[in-house]
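[step 3/7] fold_predict: job queued, chain A
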Amino acid sequence: MKLDLLAQLNADRTARRAVILITDTETGEQRLVREDDIAGSDRADLYRDLIRAGRSRPLKQEEGGGFANVLVPPAKLVLIGAVHISQVLAPMAGMLGYDVTIVDPRTAFATMERFPQVDLVAEWPDAALPDVGVDRWTAFCALTHDPKIDDPGLLHALEKGCFYIGALGSKKTHARRVERLTGAGIADTDIARIHAPIGLAIGAQSPAEIAVSIMAQITAALRLGEG
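[step 4/7] structure written:
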């Protein structure tokens, strides 16, 4: 690999940007397809599919040929609320390869005894989240039912363009949430990105079942896209 190509690849990985390294298997020539440049490509759909799948593979002749080495950042899951659902959702996400962080200022809930081996931040979201590194490769869930805790987190997630944003609560609760976010100047198109009620509609009842429905919805957003 040429040094300038390696330097660009390392810079993108450090900045948590997805890239595709395409190698011509006959000549050995290589080129980078950066996530930020996909929109202008004549193979934009192919490159988006490769990044969503997160798997390297040979390319067919009609796809341009060669081999595509897909390099995506490890996904993060940020949970606002050290609640019962989080106790199941955090280890479940960890098994799927997510780096999990739980943020909750309520120290009675945010304890290492309840959440062993999880990055736990017992601070208010507006103070904690700037240091968490929320970004495009982050799934974000607001789970406390408390607007003073959930709303600042949702505002941060919308600003950072998380690939998934979900919020716990009934349709009535979400309607009040929409009113608050609209009053804060958030556009309707941004508010529409929030999955609420959170999780796939599978009739989940227990915290464990709700966690399954949330993780399934997050997986769909990561692998299939918002649509």
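[step 5/7] annotate
The radius of gyration is 19 Å.
The CA atoms of residues 103 and 223 lie 26 Å apart.
exit 0
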